[in-house]
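Tip: read the tokens left to right.
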């Protein structure tokens, strides 16, 4: 299911969104003693990250991770880890723990098994999940062009993290699977601009999740994806 929240400006979206996420994380901490949040990369969330980093949360009880990551060096411009550390893990949020998806130079089966084990023990299920969306309808690194897409979108997949090699985008990726992501307590899709609005409308108009993987979230009957949008 889907709920669309439209804001008059990106700044209004960033501030309102940050307040809402802070409330959810605080509620999770009060209930369980800790909270986990998975975020996405790209240019869209930068302002939101800054706004969230300034929220008054018991940040040392929060674990932050990424919905997916490119298997590149952290110093690379393509690194989502770099983005999160520069924009989110600052100010009050500097006290948060970070669950790193890139823990070795090579993403082999041994590393993947260790990451799956660690993720199940330390961060899942997520209290808050913030997705982005590409113009091809991919989200996280669930790419329609990849050979791994069928397994990545299988709800009975016991792997929570997978290696993905998209054919239309650079870099090997590691991504949380649909089976892991869809169990998040609160799911958001963060979008800005008319192009992304058009892609969202296209996604909502069809039902083939393999053509546009974001549909797997938008059409799930057991969860609600809240779209946070500003032109």
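Filled-in amino acids:
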């Amino acid at each position: 299911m889907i709920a669309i929240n439209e804001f008059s400006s990106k700044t209004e979206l960033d501030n309102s969104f940050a307040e809402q996420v802070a409330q959810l994380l605080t509620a999770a901490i009060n209930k369980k003693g800790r909270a986990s949040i998975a975020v996405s990369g790209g240019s869209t969330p930068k302002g939101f990250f800054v706004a969230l980093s300034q929220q008054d949360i018991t940040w040392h009880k929060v674990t932050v991770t990424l919905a997916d990551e490119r298997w590149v060096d952290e110093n690379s411009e393509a690194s989502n880890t770099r983005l999160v550390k520069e924009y989110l893990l600052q100010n009050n949020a500097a006290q948060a723990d970070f669950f790193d998806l890139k823990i070795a130079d090579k993403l082999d089966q041994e590393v993947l098994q260790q990451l799956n084990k660690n993720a199940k023990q330390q961060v899942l299920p997520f209290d808050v999940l913030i997705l982005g969306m590409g113009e091809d309808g991919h989200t996280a690194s669930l790419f329609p062009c990849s050979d791994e897409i069928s397994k990545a979108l299988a709800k009975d997949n016991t792997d929570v993290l997978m290696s993905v090699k998209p054919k239309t985008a650079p870099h090997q990726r590691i991504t949380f699977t649909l089976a892991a992501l869809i169990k998040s307590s609160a799911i958001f899709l963060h979008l800005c601009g008319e192009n992304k609005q058009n892609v969202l409308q296209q996604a909502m108009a069809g039902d083939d999740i393999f053509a546009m993987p974001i549909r797997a979230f938008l059409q799930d009957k057991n969860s609600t994806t809240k779209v946070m949008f500003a032109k």
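Residues 2-230 form a domain with the Rossmann fold fold (CATH 3.40.50.1360). The first helix runs from residue 10 to 32.
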